[in-house]
Automatic annotation (TrEMBL):
One Pfam match: Haem_oxygenas_2
Name listed for the protein in its UniProt record: Iron-containing redox enzyme family protein
Gene3D superfamilies: Heme oxygenase-like
Superkingdom to which the source organism belongs: Bacteria
Length: 206
């Protein structure tokens, strides 16, 4: 399923009407990123409620470290959008699409009803494939927007490789059961599918 997400992302990067597509792309991502810290906080609370679980303790340690690193990224996106003429109140008034809601909402289900470690599949998608600097440069050139519209993408291009390595180290160290490995895999595959649907919805409007 990952090639599908890569293909839809590529179509956004290469879209000839990027001047109109890019603000919608940022709004779509804001719908997901605004939920990242609350979702991780929910998983942290659930992990702390499992004191005898050998996976929950290192997961909680990871989330306690990672949550402050992710806090405020939704505000970065709002600032980028405001720089290209889209005010924050207009972004916040938008109802995120069903694929975005399902992408985030499925994680709450797995956290509450299976195990909070499932969230790592979702995090792996969001942080395991950082934007390439050459793609960001191309988007800026094609869209006509200034560098102030790409600050969040540039920061993630810098930060996400490190975050991805931290996540890989955690996954290697966790004493995962077969069920937990399956859960992380399903979380990651569902996240890819739903992100692809969200991106395709955006492309269909253009």
């Amino acid at each position: 399923m990952l090639p599908l997400a890569v293909a839809t992302s590529r179509r956004i990067v290469d879209h000839p009407g990027l001047h109109g597509v890019y603000p919608e792309f940022l709004v779509m991502w804001h719908g997901m990123i605004r939920a990242s810290v609350p979702l991780m906080e929910t998983a942290l609370t659930a992990a702390r409620a499992l004191p005898d679980d050998p996976v929950a303790a290192p997961l909680a340690d990871y989330l306690e470290h990672h949550i402050p690193e992710e806090r405020g990224h939704d505000d970065w996106l709002l600032a980028d959008l405001e720089a290209i003429g889209v005010p924050p109140d207009r972004v916040l008034a938008r109802v995120p699409s069903p694929p975005v809601a399902a992408l985030v909402g499925s994680q709450y289900y797995w956290v509450h009803h299976v195990h909070p470690v499932g969230l790592l599949g979702y995090i792996a998608l969001l942080e395991g494939y950082p934007p390439a600097r050459q793609d960001i440069d191309r988007m800026q050139a094609v869209s006509g927007y200034g560098p102030e519209a790409f600050r969040t993408l540039l920061l993630h291009a810098e930060l996400d490789p490190h975050h991805g390595r931290e996540l890989d180290d955690l996954l290697d160290a966790l004493p995962l059961s077969g069920q937990q490995r399956t859960l992380i895999g399903l979380s990651g595959m569902a996240s890819v599918q739903l992100l692809s649907l969200a991106q395709q919805e955006l492309l269909d409007r253009f």
